[in-house]
Design a protein that fits this description.
This protein has 389 residues and is mainly beta. It has helices spanning 6-15, 305-310; strands spanning 21-22, 28-36, 42-44, 50-53, 66-69, 76-80, 87-92, 98-102, 107-111, 118-122, 128-133, 139-143, 148-152, 158-164, 171-177, 182-187, 192-197, 202-208, 217-220, 223-228, 233-238, 244-248, 258-259, 270-272, 280-286, 289-296, 301-302, 311-314, 321-326, 332-339, 344-345, 351-353, 356-360, 367-375, 381-388.
């Protein structure tokens, strides 16, 4: 099997949280990359590397490249160039290839996992915006001009429109929740977030943000994050209630780091997380080009040393088997695996032992993953991160 490099292990050490509980901490904004062409949507691979689209210099909306960033030191390189313009949507497929849309070209391109080649697999989308991929590999694309959310199979063959027309109006962002089978769409012009129930074929307004120009959206756990590039703000929506509030940005189009209450953003567009929402990367404009910022301690995670004494996850890194040894009195009622993009991973039914649980992780690809453990009769959800070699 492929061995994850030492560099990736260092990345994990930076984000590793042996056990976690939510407590409020101060959130800070820093700059990872001060100036580079990336200022659009973001995707993160299973090794933690960040991929940022280029929307064009000075906001010309003629960008045609994707840039790869090392989260450890902020170094960057071109991943793929000469793509159909304007490169907007970004999402990895189930094979590790990067899918990107060309808004003006009306296309979806598939870039090989090593960035050496690309091919157009979908065309004829009028204003091809954000992308999503479900657990079966189906591809979803927003069609901005005709107010559609289009579904294709993994080969790019059109299946159906899962939503068409009101309440979907100039759709921009797209986010999928596998657990419920629901798709969420942000409307650029009116600030509404639309919930599409693909089982019952219904669409309704889920939340409303108090400014228009709502762009990309991402869902991590119980929260959705939405950027508003035109108003230089980032919003958070509670997925349980649909309530929205300002998360970051004062509305002043500058690039000031520091405490989240005073930090400013300039046309924040791309948003992504390597650790299911505790760290957020934000791509924005800076002096006519791009800039990549980091918001830390989003969920206010802290160590819980008492629980750490009761439970150990090993071996880490691991290959085929992963074991959670547990010596507490509480009963573990639920365990769920996620990748760095927040997608639920399907693994064989775990084996319950007298002193813990054993998991078969042979079927998942090498990379960084998260195991969430829920205890009975409590609201405690403990999260472990680990490397699959």
């Amino acid at each position: 099997m492929k061995t994850i490099t030492l560099n990736i292990k260092c990345i994990l050490l930076l984000i590793l949280i042996s056990t976690l509980t939510q407590q409020l901490q101060g959130q800070t904004v820093t700059t990872l990359v001060e100036a580079f062409p990336g200022d659009g949507e973001i995707s993160i691979d299973n090794e933690g590397f960040i991929y940022v689209n280029d929307s064009g210099e000075n906001g010309n909306l003629d960008g045609k490249s994707v840039w790869k960033v090392d989260p450890q030191n902020g170094s960057f390189s071109m991943f793929r160039d000469n793509l159909p313009i304007w490169v907007v949507g970004s999402m990895f497929d189930l094979s590790g290839n990067l899918l990107v849309t060309g808004w003006q070209a009306g296309t979806v391109s598939r870039i090989s996992s090593d960035g050496s080649s690309d091919s157009i697999i979908i065309s004829g989308v009028n204003g091809a915006g954000s992308l999503e991929v479900d657990e079966l590999g189906n591809i979803y694309v927003v069609e901005y001009i005709l107010n559609n959310v289009k579904k294709y199979d993994s080969n790019g063959v059109f299946v159906e429109n899962i939503a068409s027309g009101s309440p979907v109006v100039n759709p921009a962002g797209l986010a999928y929740v596998q657990a419920t089978g629901k798709m969420y769409v942000s409307n650029w012009t009116n600030g509404n977030i639309i919930e599409i129930d693909m089982i019952n074929n219904t669409s309704s307004i889920f939340a409303t943000i108090d400014t228009p120009n709502v762009g990309p959206i991402k869902i991590y756990g119980n929260y959705m994050y939405a950027t508003s590039p035109g108003y230089h703000r980032i919003y958070v929506i509670d997925m349980l209630t649909g309530e929205s509030e300002l998360f970051a940005g004062t509305g002043t189009p500058t690039n000031v780091d520091g405490d989240i209450s005073t930090a400013t953003f300039n046309t924040p567009t791309g948003i992504g997380s390597p650790d299911n929402g505790n760290t957020l990367y934000i791509a924005e404009m800076f002096q006519g080009t791009g800039r990549l910022r980091v918001i830390e301690d989003v969920l206010g995670y802290q160590d819980n040393s008492d629980f750490e004494k009761k439970a150990k996850l090993f071996p880490n890194p691991g290959n085929d088997q992963l074991r959670l040894n547990y010596h507490g009195n509480e009963k573990i009622t639920e365990t769920t695996f996620y990748d760095v993009q927040g997608r639920k991973m399907n693994i064989p039914t775990p084996i319950v032992l007298s002193n813990g649980i054993e998991f078969n992780i042979e079927g998942i690809k090498p990379g960084i993953y998260f195991l969430k453990v829920r205890l009975d009769n409590t609201t405690t959800v403990v999260t472990y991160s680990f490397i699959k070699e």
